[in-house]
Amino acid sequence: MDGLPPLRAVMTEHGLDPRRALGQNFLLDLNLTGRIARQALPFDDHVVIEVGPGPGGLTRALLSEGAPRVVAIEKDPRCLGALAEIAAHYPGRLTVIEADALTVDIASLTGGRPAKIVANLPYNVGTQLLLNWLTPAAWPPLWSEMVLMFQREVAERIVATHGIAAYGRLGVLAGWRAHAAILFDVSREAFTPPPKVTSSIVRLVPRPEPIDVPLKSLETVTAAAFGQRRKMLRQSLKSLGGEALLVRAEIDPQRRAETLSVEEFCRLARLL
Ligand SMILES: C[S@@+](CC[C@H](N)C(=O)[O-])C[C@H]1O[C@@H](n2cnc3c(N)ncnc32)[C@H](O)[C@@H]1O
């Protein structure tokens, strides 16, 4: 399709037998990776940051869909040969960094240009990576859009709002910074090897206006509230001021955590 060898042949040539410890469930169908890459259009002058390119299915799709510049961070050195072939096919457009993405400051990769993050994330570190990108104090964030694959259950927690069973700390932190939506599901069979569960593609875009509140306070209040999510807030927030705190925030002390909007959590956090 793009003049490069089929991904299955690439895996054989480079000895890329998938490793579970690295969350390696590869997408080998370029039609599917193309569909994912197109969710991040238009690329304009954005740098696309991809975490975990593996044998390069999504990387190839991003480049063939016109991303002017892709910076890919991969922890597994076995993938570097296959990725170097892609870089040679698209001169000057792909940079591969061999690193653990958890330790990379992505601000150092954009060269001051706007960025989009597009990735089929390793499941074991996906949530932590998302939190690393969501929570820096700087506003606007350096990403103008993220298109990310998660296990469906995690995706549901990211997009959940108040009143929904999956709503919890992750939904509050995501909602504090971004508007998030599930775009479509990807079945287990699409991966090599198939994971245990269905996956979903999530899009996040920054909120139009930031909500000014210290991250630490927001984490403290959501941890306490959702740590005892069945209890009334006057009980679950007892150690943080309980009823008096809730009254100051003009929130009914008899409510439960999952009924509070992101804005209400932020109001409470600001009073801590
Ligand atoms: C789910 S696979 C996706 C591979 C490829 N993007 C695809 O869609 O076929 C996750 C990839 O992330 C890499 N990876 C795992 N942990 C990582 C980390 N901490 N930092 C960077 N890459 C990591 C794995 O080696 C693997 O290539």
Automatic annotation (TrEMBL):
Its EC number is 2.1.1.182. Belongs to the class I-like SAM-binding methyltransferase superfamily. rRNA adenine N(6)-methyltransferase family. RsmA subfamily. The keyword Cytoplasm applies. It catalyses: adenosine(1518)/adenosine(1519) in 16S rRNA + 4 S-adenosyl-L-methionine = N(6)-dimethyladenosine(1518)/N(6)-dimethyladenosine(1519) in 16S rRNA + 4 S-adenosyl-L-homocysteine + 4 H(+). Its main location: cytoplasm. It comes from Aureimonas endophytica. This is Ribosomal RNA small subunit methyltransferase A. Keywords: Cytoplasm, Methyltransferase, RNA-binding, rRNA processing, S-adenosyl-L-methionine, Transferase. Residues 32-208 form the Ribosomal RNA adenine methylase transferase N-terminal domain. It comes from the Bacteria. S-adenosyl-L-methionine binds at residues 25, 27, 52, 74, 100, 120. The gene is rsmA. InterPro entries: KsgA/Erm, rRNA_Ade_diMease-like_C, rRNA_Ade_Mease_Trfase_CS, rRNA_Ade_methylase_Trfase_N, rRNA_adenine_dimethylase, SAM-dependent_MTases_sf. GO terms for molecular function: 16S rRNA (adenine(1518)-N(6)/adenine(1519)-N(6))-dimethyltransferase activity; RNA binding. HAMAP family: 16SrRNA_methyltr_A.
